[in-house]
Hints:
183 residues, mainly alpha
Amino acid sequence: MLALFYLFAxxxxxxALIVVSARNPINSVIALIVCFLSIAGHYILLNAQFxxxxxxxxxxxxxxxxxxxxxxxxxxxKATEPMKSLGMRVAAITGGGLLFxxxxxxxxxxxxxxxxxPFDAGIGLVRSVGHVLFTEFLLPxxxxxxxxxxxxxxxxxxxxxxxxxPNASVEPLTEAERARRTA
Length: 183
């Protein structure tokens, strides 16, 4: 288990470094997908299968596909990317250095966290999450599903185009019809 943890941790850190250092945005997105998948591996090691699957579906599936489509639609090129100013570079290096110092101090002093509850092996399983969701939180779950359904219907209605009849001639309104419609 410890070897898998270190493997997933190394994959996460290396792919995160590729995300911020890649010149091509497509390569950056692919490295971010690998990073998200390795984080889902950490969730599975923590016995949180439900959280791992939600993480894969939501982040890796939906949001990364959205990022990829935005990058493709914007057609980001190296030639169109503006150069960063010297002040921006100095601020980035300073912020990164301060973050590194903070992380090094935290590792040096160590962190001891006491667990609030005793260990329960079934706490992150899909069965236990589903049981709690459909017993204690049934009403909020159903209300959110109705909310999502109404949002989907609203998006479809907004995206629906009106059909125009190509052969129908449009005649101007008479004064009487215009007055009747405004009244």
